């Protein structure tokens, strides 16, 4: 039976490029929801879209790569992909086809599967989601490779 003990996750990437916008959205939506509840407007039709926007902004803010023990968690939007470091063959930085100057971090699994992440280098504000300078992206690959070797 797997352990249910809580483990700390370590965020390896900075906030998404639109992180400040997500923070403002969270603050505004949370303020409006709290104000509606304080005023006793529990059935206000505006509460549903506000809660949806609040959850979406929170999900957007959490995008990135996390390390939890011997697992790598790739968070994107409201979803996530969990990859055991022991199943990763290598980490590579590859250019994005059709986009000049855009490079993304890719994982190659032992079974040959290529997994693209939303972390990379670009001058475009919206793509990739988490932007890093090239030097920091290389340092991230080295850090991930060091962790992979420890658990391999």
Briefly characterize the structure.
The protein has 152 residues and is an alpha+beta fold. The protein has helices at 19-38, 47-61, 134-151, and strands spanning 10-11, 64-68, 71-76, 79-84, 88-95, 103-109, 114-121, 130-131.
The major pleated sheet works out as: 4 strands, antiparallel
* C-alpha termini separation: 22 Å
Q: What is the string of SSEs from the N terminus onward?
A: EHHEEEEEEEH
* Helix proportion range: 25-40%
Mean pLDDT: 88
Strand content: 25-35%
What would you say this structure looks like, in words?
The protein is built from 3 helices and 8 strands; from the N terminus they run E-H-H-E-E-E-E-E-E-E-H. By secondary structure, it is of the alpha+beta class. The strands form 2 sheets. The chain has a 4-stranded antiparallel β-sheet with strand order 1-2-3-4, with no helix packed on it. Strands 5-6-7-8 form a 4-stranded mixed β-sheet, with helices on one face. A hairpin with a 2-residue loop joins strand 3 and strand 4. The protein is elongated, with a radius of gyration of 19 Å. The two termini are 22 Å apart.
């Amino acid at each position: 039976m797997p352990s249910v003990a809580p483990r700390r996750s370590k965020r390896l990437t900075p906030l998404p490029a639109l992180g400040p916008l997500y923070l403002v959205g969270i603050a505004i939506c949370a303020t409006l929801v709290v104000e509606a509840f304080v005023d006793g407007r529990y059935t206000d039709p505006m509460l549903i879209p506000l809660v949806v926007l609040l959850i979406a902004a929170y999900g957007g803010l959490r995008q990135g790569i996390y390390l939890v023990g011997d697992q790598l968690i790739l968070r994107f939007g409201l979803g996530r992909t969990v990859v055991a470091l022991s199943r990763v063959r290598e980490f590579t930085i590859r250019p994005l086809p059709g986009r000049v100057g855009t490079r993304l971090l890719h994982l190659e699994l032992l079974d040959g599967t290529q997994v693209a992440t939303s972390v990379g280098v670009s001058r475009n504000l919206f793509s990739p989601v988490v932007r890093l300078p090239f030097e920091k992206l290389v340092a991230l690959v080295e850090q991930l490779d060091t962790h992979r070797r420890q658990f391999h």
